Amino acid sequence: MFDFSYQLKLLPDKPGVYLMKNSLGEIIYVGKAKILKNRVRQYFQSSKNHSEKVKAMVKNIAEFEYIVTDSEIEALILECNLIKKYKPRYNILLKDDKHYPFIKITTNEDFPRIFVTRIIAKDGAKYFGPYVDVSAVYETMELIKKIFPIRTCKRVIKEKGDITRPCLNYHINLCTAPCAGFIDKEDYGKTVAEITNILNGKDSMVLRQLKVDMEKASEELEFEKAAALRDKIAALEKIREKQKIMTGSFENEDFINLDSDEMDSCVNIFFLRNGKIVGREHFMLENTSGENKAVIISQFIKEFYGGTAFVPKTIYVPEILETELLEQWLTMKRGSKVELRIPQKGDKKNLLEMVKKNATATLDQFKLKLMQDKALHKETLKDLAHILNLEDLPHRIEAYDISNIQGVDSVGSMIVFENGKAKNSDYRRFKIKTVKGANDYDSMREILTRRFKRGLDEVKAIEEKNLALSAGKFCVFPDLILMDGGLGQINIALEVLRNLNIDIPVCGMVKDDKHNTRGLIYNNEELYLKKSSNVIHFITRIQDEVHRFAISYHRSLRDKRILHSILEDIPNIGAKRRKELLKKFGSIENIKKASYKELVDTDSIDTKAANSILDYFNKASSKND
User: Fold this and answer.
1) What is the CATH number of domain 253-364?
2) Which of 6, 402, 459, 617 is in the most buried spot, having the most CB atoms within 10 Å?
3) What are 164's strand-pairing partners?
């Protein structure tokens, strides 16, 4: 380990964030401290109280740097941002981090719309959620549209504004056509209020009124109207079935608990909205051996709520560290007071215990599946080694593919399987730099040369500094290389390896006329694989994955190009503004849906630019309508 005694003496007695780096300059851990000097020194003192994860990290620290902040809350905010940016390997990272969908009602408009969104903003609209079950959200939306005729178009409709011809939705009774002046703002608002009550869980009144109207229609022999009301009642009851009343309050609350074994932890979180469970989620946190439960929960809260748009009013946990600091940070994110509570008895305590039981069950399932998969993967690798006559099991396998569409944007991809399991953290993508046009052989030669030459350079640097191989990205070489192609691709790979004096077996994965994986080519011979064997299923999985990874990269490049070209057509939107819009909203669809307030809240977007964006998409929408 490096001698940091001089740098440690220079550490200030102030709050801030520290970044640990390995020999390649990669950030492997980000932490925050109330007093930087005290916290950072602890890593380089006696390791007997350190967890196994911290011990492993300290061995790989080659340098560190720090950023001084004015307060501990500033340090916490900066820590969350840096973890999100760099995704350091020794921080707790939620692989399933996602922005959950909300149902949005644009109550800031004269004639509100309702739609699903993953972006939440303080724009005067009402948001309901988040919802974990995405399919249930869209089904609920369809049911609401079936019950209530509310508009779905993106037009800007003002009361007593310009009158236009109603669209098809009006003629099939899915909209009351405020665009044509067929309904006023007050009557339309009553429909919106009923939808709001349903999403708030206050649907009993709506249901009672529908039943009264149905009975009245039936008594007046208006059977067609009664049947329509009956269908609406059935749809509304289906919405109610999706949620279960769990508490007497109608607050927004999250319940977090976990269970751990000697190696890993499972954190479960239940989402209660307006007193109803709207979903739950679990996160497997691997290699948490020796970590304190309160530490894991505190780190989980920072990681989870740092990446979600919604923060509830109350979060219940079994134990936690830095309660006041986390409450302060969560309150800033929510815009109103947030409390972290440890329930001692009653319904809250019981529900928290239920969350733990779910975490225990999920952890047990995870371990059982892990054991089953491990045994299956080992047998599969044994069979593969036998077929290829390899002396050792191919614990690490790398597969390569080239993708281009009509000769444009050639890209290369590398995926990794370790011990029979995909290792996504080691996947790599390559933009082709030296080859023009659709030349798969030269493109493959380029990416393989770059990959293995970089690996040799890393090995040399690591040996000179006496570090573990885990300090690099490319220095760990595979036991077997699989090429998505035949003899041509295999020979390119062998040529590159030979030039670099590297000896690794290379196979080609070949497909039949129906594009199904047929077998392997090795040592200029095609090897027959039984269609029902574990090996053919394993090779098919690798071939499909490397192809998917290559295609997804190609599509992302193409989509960026399309996004860029569309935004170029909008007046007053230059390169800097295009970049800021894509950075904030992520897609053209989200920019289309953005309100004026959301747009002007974007860096570098002023009033003139926001109006240009709204005018552009409104005109495009009118043309489509």
Assistant:
1) 3.30.420
2) 402
3) none
Q: Which two tokens stand for residue 340?
A: 């972290």
Percentage of the chain beyond pLDDT 70 is 86
Q: Which residue has the tokens 């059935």?
A: 234
d(CA 516, CA 520): 12
pTM score of the predicted model: 0.55
Assigned CATH class of 396-557: alpha beta
Q: What are phi and psi of 414, to 5 degrees?
A: -130, 125
Peptide bond into 571 cis (omega under 30): no
Phi, psi angles (nearest 5°) of residue 528: -80, 130
Other beta carbons within 10 Å of 384: 23
- In this prediction, residue 247 has a pLDDT band, given cuts at 50, 70 and 90, of very low
Domain 253-364 identical in fold to domain 396-557: yes
**Contact at 8 Å (CB) between 344 and 318?**
no
CB-based contact 167:161 (threshold 8 Å): no
610: enclosing H helix or E strand:
helix 607-624
The values of phi and psi at residue 424, to 5°, are -60, -30
Domain coordinates in residue numbering, the chain: 5-86, 102-200, 253-364, 396-557, 569-624
Tell me the torsion sign for CA atoms 47, 49, 53, 54.
Answer: negative
- Whether the per-residue pLDDT at 97 is higher than 50: the answer is no
Relative orientation angle of helices 223-241 and 134-147, to the nearest 10 degrees: 160
- For 5-86, CATH number? 3.40.1440.10
Q: Reduced to 3 states, what is the DSSP secondary structure of residue 383?
A: helix
Q: CA torsion sign, 422 to 427 to 429 to 434?
A: negative
For strand 408-418 and strand 314-316, is the pairing parallel, antiparallel, or unpaired?
unpaired
